[in-house]
Backbone:
């Protein structure tokens, strides 16, 4: 998930949409293409990162669909897409474990899909 504040979203909608397109393209390129350039960039900021760990992490992301997600029917989802229904489930889970107070955060307050590319 990515976060911004309402003021930035209101004042910079075109930039936010462009960022979201680039963010999703980057994830898709990493997951479906050659991960070597991304791993090289990651190693520059974390010299302890090994190629084996980077490849294993990427495989876990792919296997568990941590970036692409899953549709309710178990079928494929799209990178960068988060449904309001899934977000409501996440809010309820966070309330249940005490991270969020009960009935204080609504989906409408917390998220929007207005800046996502069309599916």
Residues:
């Amino acid at each position: 998930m990515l976060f911004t504040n309402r003021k930035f979203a209101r004042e910079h909608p075109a930039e936010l949409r462009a960022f979201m397109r680039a963010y999703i393209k980057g994830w898709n390129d990493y997951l479906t293409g050659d991960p070597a350039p991304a791993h090289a960039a990651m190693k520059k900021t974390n010299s302890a990162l090994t190629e084996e760990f980077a490849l294993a992490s990427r495989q876990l992301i792919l296997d568990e669909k941590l970036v692409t997600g899953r549709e309710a029917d178990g079928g494929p989802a799209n990178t960068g897409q988060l449904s309001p229904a899934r977000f409501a489930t996440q809010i309820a889970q966070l309330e249940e474990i005490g991270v969020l107070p009960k009935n204080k955060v609504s989906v409408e307050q917390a998220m929007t899909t207005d800046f996502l590319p069309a599916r």
